[in-house]
Structure formats: C-alpha cells, structure tokens
Amino acid sequence: MKVAIAGAGAVGRSIARELLRSGHNVMLLERQLDHIDRDSVPEAIWVHADACELALLEDAGLEDYEVVIAATGDDKANLVHSLLAKTEFGVRRVVARVNDPRNEWLFDDSWGVDVAVSTPRLLASLVEEAVSVGDLVRLMTLRQGQANLVELTLPPDTTLAGKPVRSLKLPRDSALVTILRGGRVIVPQPDDPFEGDDELLFVVSATAEEELRAVLAPHGMEPTSGHTTGLTPAQDAEY
After folding, report:
1. pLDDT, tens digit, for every residue of 53-72?
2. Three-state DSSP class for 1?
3. At 50, phi and psi to the nearest 5?
4. CA distances to 4, 129, 138, 182, 203 from 194, in Å
5. 91 Cβ partners below 8 Å, 6+ apart?
6. What is the C-alpha to C-alpha distance for residues 52 and 165, in angstroms, rounded to an integer?
7. 191-204 pLDDT, tens per residue?
C-alpha cells in the first residue's frame, strides 16, 4: 500500500519504519523543518508541508495514497488532516491518533476518521486484559463504534468447563471468534468444549454488548463490574 503519515515525530517515524519493513510505500509529512530527519527513515518520502494546508497536500499528491495516518501531537491538526484526506482526496482509510482522551468523541466519521487510536485508553485496556479474570474487557472499537472486540478470561471454576461451544447462546449481533488456550489459537467449532482459563474473544455490536455481558455473567463474570471501556469508572468520570 501507499501510506501517508502526517507528523514525523517519534510516533510517526516508528509507524513509518514498521510499514516499510512490511513492504509498504510511505510518505512522511512534517510541518516543522527542524523535525525533518531523512536519515532516520531513509526509505520514506519526506515532504516539508503543513498537513492542514490543502494546496500543500495537493502538491504532495495525497490523492494517490490508499491510507492516511494523522499522527501529530495536536488533536486539532489530526482532525483537520483526517477531514481533508477523506473529503478532498477520497482516501479510502483514515487512521487518527488521539492525544487527549477527552477529545476521543470527536474522532468519528463526521471528521473523516475510520479508526481512532487513543494510546492511554488502549494501554488501559491491555492492562485490564492481562489481569482481569471473569470480566468483559473491551480491547478495540471497530468501524466508528458500530462493533467492539471484547475479551473474557474464564475463571478456573467456570460453569462452562466441559460444555460445547454450541451451548453458549449468544445474543444477536455477537460472535465468538477465537479461543486462546495455552498458547494456541482455536477457531471455535460447535462441539469444541470450553475449559477453565480460556480467553474468549468476541466481536459484538455496541448495542448488544450489555446483553452479551448478561449471557456470560452466570459463567464466572463479576456481576458488580459495570465497565467495558478499558478504564475504571473513576477514570471514565475524569475523562
């Protein structure tokens, strides 16, 4: 793919290196001349341009890129760049970095954002996933919040142990996609039995998430844990 990254700071350069290692073509857009360091990512195309200036983006040929990543340290700039990429250049996929979780609600399709990545929220979700047993943890939001990837680690004494996958009656708009067990990735089949300590990954619509929680509760979930955002209720209130 051809990928354009707005912001050539530490984050933008790291993303560029990973994409280049995977064989993609990368252009780095950087507004501040003293931040341009071509030797740090020599395989990338470097462009000195303000990612919010339409004429400069036209000169850079942004319409030729399949994916745009707004990775600056300024949420306002990331939103404007995302909107321009989607509406003016017809970029198919726009990914935007959220620096301040309080601004996360802005990063949706109305600003041209297909995927918003909030590092604080993502890290909190990953910490919860690593330590939570018997509670539903939201790992990622897909397609502008229409669906979520959620995880549940079954406790050792789960009532599901030994029962087949087909015995778990899931709500509409939800699916069990993977069982992680002892380093194995299992694509669940109807007759596969559950075991204690299994990690279950579900894709569920935002509207069906609470119904999924209710279905799983009798099998080991903590009934008092009412959050699935990856943050504690106190953190949610703060943001």
Report:
1. 999 999 999 999 999 999 99
2. coil
3. -80, 120
4. 44, 19, 21, 13, 18
5. 4, 62, 63, 65, 66, 67, 68, 85
6. 50
7. 999 999 898 999 99
